[in-house]
Amino acid sequence: MKKEVLKKALVASVPVLSGYLVIGLSFGVVLQSRGYGPLWAAAMSAFIYAGSMQFVAVELMSSAASLFTVALTTLMVNMRHVFYGLSMVDRYKNAGKAKPYLIFALTDETYSLVCNPPEMAPEEEKSFYILVSVLNHIYWIAGSLLGSILGSVLPFSTEGIDFALTALFVSVFVEQWLSAKDHVPALLGLGASALCLLLFGADNFLIPAMLLILLGLTLYRKREEARA
């Protein structure tokens, strides 16, 4: 049974593997270009493990930003994980000792896989959550380390390389769109994000968009439950 769950986790995480290797490589190259070597890349990816924030952290480190600036920036960039966590309370409530790690490892991509797991017995789901989380974490560390090593021996311009993170978000969205029958949640997310981007601008739209998405999904879920 465990081998079957591992196989399902491996298959489900293949898109993340390809994305994390590319984005992790990009991060490692950018980090190396700022004078931080492979040990920094491995440590940041192992203990911070927040793709977009790690790119931001490189700039904060390079500019010698204050701890207050770092803390506030981290809170703003990763605020969306508060909403992720609230939606995972039921799924992770029986995770036992693995629960702290599952919370720590809940990235955007892991969240998308955990929310849409393949068919399996209920008792297998906990193992699937753990395996997907661990595998994605390994992919990210490996990509970051590889990028840092390559960046030290193959110097080249890093301009625009951090766009790989945006590309991964798009690929995950497309994968979920193709696999899901109900596209209303995806359309709610797109609509709310576009509206808040217009109203608040690129620097301030994220938190209002997440709040609007949460409200929209809550109302939509209540409507679907009423219909059922």
How are the elements arranged and paired?
Layout (H helix, E strand, L loop, with lengths): L1 H32 L4 H10 L3 H12 L4 H11 L2 H8 L1 H4 L6 H6 L3 H8 L9 H29 L10 H16 L4 H17 L5 H22 L1
Helix pairs in contact: 1-2, 1-3, 1-9, 1-10, 2-9, 3-4, 8-9, 11-12
Can you walk through the features of this model?
It is a single chain. This protein is mainly α. The chain has helices at residues 2-33, 38-47, 51-62, 67-77, 80-87, 89-92, 99-104, 108-115, 125-153, 164-179, 184-200, 206-227. The mean pLDDT is 84. The protein has 2 domains: 2-161, no CATH class; 181-228. The chain has 12 helices and no strands. Helix 1 (2-33) runs parallel beside helix 9. It starts with a helix and ends with a helix.
Question: Concise description?
Answer:
The chain is mainly alpha-helical and 228 residues long. 77% of the residues lie in helices and 0% in strands.
- The residue fraction in helices comes out at over 70%
Estimated radius of gyration: 18 Å
- The portion of residues forming beta strands comes to under 5%
What is the helix tally? 12
The shape is globular
Low-confidence residue ranges: none
- Give, in order, the helices and strands: HHHHHHHHHHHH
Mean pLDDT: 84
Distance between the termini: 33 Å
Strand element count: 0
Main sheet specs: none
Counted up, domains total: 2
Query: What structural class should be given to the helix and strand makeup?
Result: mainly alpha
